Amino acid sequence: MTRLLRDTLEDWAGEARVPPGLADRALRRRAWKPYGAAVLVAAMIAAVAVFVTVQRDPVPPVARPLSGITLPPRPSPAPTDIRTDTEHSPPAKLVAAGRMAVSAYYVTRQEPVEGDRTRVRRTWSVYDPGTDGYRETPYAWVDVAPGLQVAAVIQGDLIGNRVGVLNLDTGQMLATYELEHPVGSVVWSPDGTRILATAYSSYPDVFQEDSAEMGSPRTGYYVIDTGTGESVYHELPPLPDGIYSDAEYTNGNGRQDLGWSLDGELIWGPTSSSPDRRFYTLDGSPTDAPKGERYRRGSGLSATSPDGQLVLGDDGMPTKITEAATGKVVGRQRVLQLHAWADNDNVLALGCAGKCENEFNNGLVLVSVDGSKTIQLAANRDSDADGSWRWVLTPR
Question: How many CA atoms lie within 13 A of 385 on its CB side?
């Protein structure tokens, strides 16, 4: 049986509901014999007594104790070799360089809904240690923890009320968390022990032609501690649209997923202005940005090199890398975007094909700080086309 089929059957099994007393009724039918009238009357009296007792004295629901799970240990030392797959798009083999790997990817497709609205659906594939490649999943969202051992998944169609922790090596679901509010994204904390799940009242990736009044259906978020099994919900409404508000922080997008600070002490929500994120304490109170942390715009990845000496520059060819202390430019790179540090000397980046006549014909590359060396990691693809794939980078 394939892991995908096994995962799907586990989901169905978890959603199944058995009618109360089904086993008792089945056993009664199998063991039925024509007893005498006195025995039958006595049985009827006993049944009535039980019914009355249940009606008068309902048994309170039993609270399920919280139970944590032990996650597989991260590899130590983590591998740092370069792995490429430029023959398949999406990749069939692991793509990685230095401290980072393509842990998962998703394929996007647009589909019509009522009226003139459309929505974007993601089909997720995740790293499979057994084949050293990727396998498609049935989940609405996937995020792989640092170390590439487990993934947090949303079980459902587009959004869902169940978050699972999936062992990537065995395909076994280590834990499932039933949530009162549906969630649309999950992301692991930097230490790989907690899951941040953003809650929505409806699917956020719905668009209406010639309409800027859709708004965001974000309602709040859960912090799930895998060590204790505890999941805590906090309300956090979306940021206002900048077209209709002069607030300091605005965002007109429907999807406003939350992320972790680099030290895991705070969370942040994206903005459509500068600064590109708004920070909150774990209970949802607005707070100042943590000192010294710099981010690659729009992501939870650090813009600062592992040794703290260099900083990734903004998007746009050519990109640049500067000294953290002085701001001095130490290198320019012929790529479109700088995504993540592979090590202190090389960066995973978005490169474009040929002479970059078409910026949407691009792919994942490894580029040196001085821009003199470039290695193609994954095949180029039309990133603007329906059905294109998008990678997710995770520390190995």
Answer: 10
Quote the CA–CA distance of 165 and 297 in Å, as a whole number.
Answer: 28
Using one digit for the tens of pLDDT, what is the confidence trace for 308-352? 999 999 999 999 999 999 999 999 999 999 999 999 999 999 999
Structure tokens belonging to residue 331:
């290198």
Q: Where are the alpha helices (DSSP H) in the chain?
A: 3-15, 22-31, 37-56
Nearest Cα to Cα of residue 286 among 310, 313, 268, 264: 268
Q: Which residues have C-beta within 8 Å of that of residue 152, sequence separation ≥ 6?
A: 142, 143, 145, 163, 164, 165, 166, 186, 187, 188, 195, 197
How far, in Å, CA of 245 to CA of 8, rounded? 44
Cis before 237? omega within 30: no
For the chain, the C-alpha Rg in angstroms (whole number) is 26
Q: What would the pLDDT profile of 103-154 be if each residue is shown by its tens digit?
A: 999 999 999 998 889 999 999 999 999 999 999 999 999 999 999 999 999 9
How many other C-beta atoms can be found within 10 angstroms of the C-beta atom of residue 216? 20
Reported pTM: 0.82
Phi then psi for residue 199, to 5 deg, are -95, 145
- DSSP conformation letters of 249-288: S----S----EE-TTSS-EEEE-SSSSSEEEE-TTS-B-P
Q: Of 2.130.10.10, 1.10.1740.10, 3.30.110.10, 2.40.40.20, which CATH number belongs to 138-293?
A: 2.130.10.10
- Give the three-class secondary structure for 214: coil
